[in-house]
Amino acid sequence: MEQDKELIKKIQSGDSSAFADLYDRYFEKIYKFIYYKTSHKENAEDLCSQTFTKALEKISDFKFTKTGTFSAWLYRIARNTVIDFYRTSPQQQDIDKTYNLYQEDDMENKISNKQDLDNIKDKLGLLKQEQKEIIVMRVWDELSYKEISEIMGKSEASCKMNFSRGIKQLKNSLISIIIIIALLVS
Amino acid sequence: MNENIKNILEDIYSIDDSLRKHEKDLIKIIKTLLAAKPKAKYDEAFRQELRAELLEKFAELEEKQSKGFLKINFKLMNKLPYAIGGLILGMLVLLPFVSKDNILPGGKQINIGLESEIAKLSSNNAFGKINSDSDASLAARNAATEETVAGFGGGGSMTAYEKSMISSVMPAPMQYSYIYEGEDISLDDELLPVLKKVKGTEAQKSLAKILQNADFENIQMTSFSNSHLRNFQISEEEEYGYTLYVDLHEGMMSIMENWEMWPQPEVMQTLSPNQVPDDQTLLNIANKFLQEKKIDTSQYGQPHIDDNWRMYYDQRLAEGLDYYVPESIGVIYPQMVDGQMVYDEWGNPHGMNVTVNIRYNRVSSVHNISTQKYQSSDYDMETDVNKIIKLAEQGGSYTYYQDENAQNFEIKLGTPTYSYVQIWQHDGRTSNQLFVPALIFPVTEKPDNEYFFKENVVVPLAKDMVEQRLNPPIYPEDQPEILLK
Fold it and tell me: A55 or B426, which is more confident?
């Protein structure tokens, strides 16, 4: 975070190499964050490009506050860009369903057949959108609850609670999941 | 089990410890979720291409900004055309004497810092020990603020000098007991940012250079080195004209009536209370003036009318005494810093003050139009609730003055809100404006028949200030005159 502050200070005084450093620090994280929400390479690239362009245009106004970090600010831009994409592109699937839309060729080798995929889709489909989003940010993006709370505009306690409830719900459907595991290790 | 899974499990248990018994199942779920993570591999060529595009755009934006003299001035004109109009007027007057190259050296913008900006400093306690000027002077007098001493002081014992003054001219003293009746509070933040207003602006140097290039007869202006324009004043020479005063160094502006151009009847009739417009009318007059002058109010909260005069008036009337209705009524626009309202040490909202002359129903002055550039540095905060409540029950200041002959009045305080208190701190040469996190305790009950104006009790949270106010330095009681100097 201190490193971010230093870089932003330099960017705000016109140092382009500081912006390049900041981009290098965050590109992969933001790309993945968007990809998990779209599961489509071209869309992810397009939205990633929009995210960084918006960040560049607004970075002169960025201010560190006692609660606001640059990381959360950037993720929030990315999240809003994805939401706008789904709002303005009716031909695209609803964002609520995106976590279920992995292409088979995108999956880790461990899940190799469509039935496994469908099982996970079913289980995640049981969760509320917000729970899914928090679980994905925590487990896949490896974001802290503090970061998630800033991105979602919710309290840390509420994010933790949502995550825990989501996992509990998945646990209650454990039999199906155990079947998946069995298939995974076979 | 990898670290990530361990952390996730601990998070889950912190919410619902009963899930521990299902650890194996939970691990399976988490592993499944991790296994389902899509392989989001980016295209390196795309990454490089986007990087190059962004850097190109960065350069374009920078170029626009550096060429943006007219644009940025125009933006400032929207903010405060009065001030910048004055600058431009000044430049036009001086243009015949000034080479074009010197209008703004380096094509730099005039940025006087009206837009809010907070620069976080990496080191803690960067502004030294926090000690407001009022604490220093009060401690020196070994006395307190304006409430307990004969209805004027806020605590502390009286000096011999004060006691003698009071015994000769004042009635029996009054003292106030503050009682906290709000909800339980907790203070979790050990460190919070204290803000310091940044003085000065880059424009000072550029503007000084313009003036120095002018021909001032026998004075060799260019012989003054490293010059900065600190302030200027412009007056409208027309009926109901105004004077604009800009202090570039302190970052303050004010607009006042130009007395010479306002009517001054030989016989002034005393105003009566029914001549005072209602609050909405006063607000409309103030708002309209600010809009006309395009003074940005976005950094300020909801304005309110300062109607303390009414309390005085009613009280004096009840006591059969004379009291005059004021010629001007204040409209306060509370300043917001970092999203928080700012209070002064006496519990009043601090901000831009617009006064409306009710004889002419016109704005007569606007004070405290301030620049909004701050530095921020973290300071230790008091987390002991008992100390904070104790200080609140002292009225926010020093140890409460006790006099057995004094008439005692109870003041009740409600649950506080978090805010900033503005203090002045002297650093040996100049005074600096600091904004310190504070709790604002609202006065919920006060005596009806006394001159008690305080609406809030302000308790700063900075440890330095809490300690000083709870344990003030003691000075010998018989030397007030020396200490007062």
Answer: A55
> Rounded to a whole number, what is the distance in Å from the CA of A87 to chain B's nearest CA?
23
How far is Cα A133 from Cα B403, in angstroms, rounded to an integer?
64
Please name the residues in contact with B192: beta carbons below 8 A apart, sequence gap of 6 or more. A66, B378, B379, B381, B437, B461
Binned at pLDDT 50, 70 and 90, residue B351 comes out as: very high
Q: Does B448 touch chain A (CB under 8 A)?
A: no
Our CA-based measurement puts residue B62 at a distance from the nearest CA of chain A, in whole angstroms, of 7
- For A1-92, which CATH class? mainly alpha
Q: Rounded to a whole number, what is the distance in Å from the CA of B439 to chain A's nearest CA?
A: 17
- Which of A49, A63, A111 is opposite residue B35, by nearest beta carbon? A111
**Cα(B419)–Cα(B343) distance, integer angstroms:** 8
Instruction: Please state, in angstroms and rounded to a whole number, the distance separating the CA atoms of residues A170 and A114.
Output: 20
Question: What pLDDT is recorded for position A166?
Answer: 80
Q: What are the domain boundaries of chain B?
A: 3-35, 80-109+201-249, 133-196+376-484
Which residues on B lie below 8 Å from A164 (Cβ)?
11-12, 15-16, 19
Nearest by CB to residue A35, choosing from B38, B338, B339, is B38
Give residue limits of the domains in chain A. 1-92, 100-186
Out of B32, B57, B65, the one facing A181 most closely (by C-beta) is B32
Check A16 against B42: CB less than 8 A apart: no
**DSSP classification of residue B148:** S
Could you tell me which CATH class the domain A100-186 is placed in?
A: mainly alpha
CA B367, B372, B375, B376 torsion: positive or negative? positive
Residue in A with minimal Cα distance to B64: A14
Q: Does A23 contact B54 at a Cβ distance shorter than 8 Å?
A: yes
Angle at B49 between CA A148 and CA A48, to 5 degrees: 25
pTM score, whole prediction: 0.53
Phi and psi at residue A58, to the nearest 5°: -100, -5
**SS3 label, residue A58:** helix
**Residue A75, both tokens:** 């993720």
Q: Is B24 on the interface with A (CB under 8 A)?
A: no
Residue B380 to residue A31: CA distance in whole angstroms:
39
CA distances for B215 relative to B93, B94, B101, B220, angstroms: 12, 9, 16, 8
Express each pLDDT in B379-438 by its tens digit: 999 999 999 999 999 888 765 556 667 778 889 999 999 999 999 988 777 888 999 999
Q: Which tokens in the block code for residue B327? A: 């010629």
CA A142 to CA B11: how far, in whole Å? Answer: 13
Ranges of beta strands (E only) in B199-296 are 231-235, 242-247, 252-257
User: Which of A32, A56, A161 comes nearest B15 by C-beta?
Assistant: A161
The CA distance from B400 to the nearest CA of chain A, in Å, is 34
Q: Mean pLDDT over residues A108-130, rounded?
A: 58
Structure token pair of residue B423: 């203090």
Which of A70, A79, A78, A65 has the alpha carbon at shortest distance from A11? A70
Q: Which of B58, B66, B379 to mutate to test the interface with A (most CBs of A within 10 A)?
A: B58
Q: How far is CA B237 from CA A125, B242, B263, B295, in A?
A: 74, 8, 13, 21
What band does B122 get if pLDDT is binned at 50, 70 and 90? confident
Task: Pick the closest to residue A73 from A4, A153, A151 (CA basis).
Answer: A151
Comparing CA positions, the residue from B192, B266, B84, B219 lying closest to residue B421 is B192
Please tell me the distance from the alpha carbon of residue B439 to that of residue B420, in angstroms, as a whole number. Answer: 8
